[in-house]
Design brief:
- Helix content is 32%, strand content 28%.
- The protein is an alpha+beta fold and 171 residues long.
- It has one domain: 3-Layer(aba) Sandwich (Aminopeptidase), CATH 3.40.630.
- A hairpin with a 2-residue loop joins strand 2 and strand 3.
- The radius of gyration is 15 Å and the shape is globular.
Amino acid sequence: MIISNSTINDIDEIFRLYKIASDYQKAQKKVTVWPDFERGLIESEISENRQWKITINDEVACIWAITFSDEQIWEKRNEDSAVYIHRIATNPDFRGNNFVAKIVEWVKEYARSTGKQYVRLDTTGNNVRLIEHYKNSGFDFLGMFELEDTAGLPGHYSQAPVCLFEINLKD
């Protein structure tokens, strides 16, 4: 298992995994579904070294993105020093490997090395199984919140309340 930055050569695979994740969300019913993401967003994340992947035997097994500011979602809490994780998507050929736990261990080290106090992520809607999964992966569940301003955010943020999770690295 290798964790590394995604490259522009991975972009078709990234979009394939997003499509698979969206289709899976649709099949779950009562779960907020990811919209189609803008290609420019992913290209920017790649060029800024904020799009990551796990590869196993030269195959992309899992992807995610990070950012260091997430003001619209985290509002006042955005003033804290944090790494924010977005859009974890797993290749179905590698399901069951608990990549969230592997990402959490990696991102905790990454956050410490860049002087950040928190590791954070969010999800939309009341997806009880996903909330439990994130809690079991070490996140504190902060609750469900209605966002004040969703303009410019992907569409799923205006469809349901957002669930916020964090790990305080000083605890």
